[in-house]
Design goal:
It is built from ten helices and ten strands. The protein is an alpha/beta fold. The strands form two sheets. Strands 3, 4, 5, 6, 7, 8, 9 and 10 form an eight-stranded mixed sheet that branches. A two-stranded antiparallel ribbon has the order 1-2.
């Protein structure tokens, strides 16, 4: 087959030929970056930890993917994998939606918690998964977070939480909102025990999650470009917040205003977390002298 006539084509004709060439590729080989429109081959994207190698756009990760690049191989032990949501308010079609999300995500709910090792440290970790109900926090998510923190306290372990959520789960009503106070109380117990609590904001971290356990870390990091804030941009505009900076409700805006400690690219995240754990361990050792 003759090669595509790239040279000599201009304007719409060139774009049409390029589009046809891309469309002719088998499905599943490439992904178009939503930020810079670069065509990325999926194998290269996976090697780069699902970060665009042109503009640095950080794609969302599944909980299993996040754990694979954060916890040392073969050391992760999951907690409470059997916990599954009920329908306490008999919300219409909620049971059906939960079943669909289970099939889509392979999870019982929107967070995976457990213990594992990072370098020389054993840690308790929780990783939210946006693929299940938008990472929303209902009764099961709140309970798993609290149980994980209680395990950390009982075993004198640091806690790391990766957040990605649209907030509280509306289908569980006030029972979902109660998880904000419940998880915040668990965070207070971790602080009282003198244990490090590290939070990483992934895209997006919003609403009730952002206003509870996500914002209570001793160290708060974020991935580049993550959507971070309490209310959505449309809600903020309706509330009368008209003059918004271009980077409003991003991790960069949060850093500029002192709400987070550092923006950490994904490839540097594990080494950064280990450095913080090393620092905390040294501080603990010096306190004991």
């Amino acid at each position: 087959m003759a090669p595509a006539p790239w040279f000599g084509l201009k304007g719409k004709a060139a774009r049409k030929t390029a589009r046809q060439s891309i469309d002719a590729l088998p499905d599943g080989l490439w992904t178009k970056c939503p930020k810079c429109n670069e065509i990325l081959f999926n194998k290269e994207l996976e090697k780069n930890l699902r970060v665009c190698n042109k503009c640095g756009y950080h794609y969302r990760l599944r909980a299993s993917e996040r754990l694979a690049i954060t916890i040392d191989d073969g050391t992760f032990v999951e907690f409470d994998a059997h916990l599954a949501p009920a329908n306490p308010l008999d919300f219409p079609d909620y049971d059906i939606s939960i079943k669909k999300d289970r099939l889509k995500s392979g999870l019982e709910d929107a967070i995976v918690t457990g213990a594992g090792e990072m370098g020389d440290h054993k840690v308790v970790i929780g990783v939210a998964d946006f693929a299940f109900r938008g990472g929303s926090m209902g009764g099961v998510v709140g309970e798993k977070i609290v149980r994980a923190m209680e395990y950390a306290i009982a075993n004198n372990l640091p806690v790391i939480m990766f957040t990605t959520s649209g907030g509280a789960r509306m289908q569980e009503g006030i029972l979902s909102l109660m998880q904000m106070a419940k998880t915040a109380a668990a965070c207070a117990k971790v602080h009282e025990a003198g244990l490090p609590y590290i939070v990483v904001f992934a895209d997006p971290t919003t609403a009730g999650v952002h206003a509870s356990y996500a914002s209570l870390g001793d160290f708060i990091f974020a991935e580049p470009g993550a959507l971070v804030g309490f209310a959505g941009a449309r809600v903020a505009q309706q509330a009368g917040l008209i003059h918004r900076p271009d980077n409003f409700q991003t991790s960069e805006f949060q850093l500029e205003h002192g709400m987070i400690d550092r923006i950490v690219p994904r490839r540097e995240m594990k080494s950064t977390l280990i450095k913080i754990l090393d620092f905390c361990a040294k501080e603990d050792a010096s306190d004991g002298v």
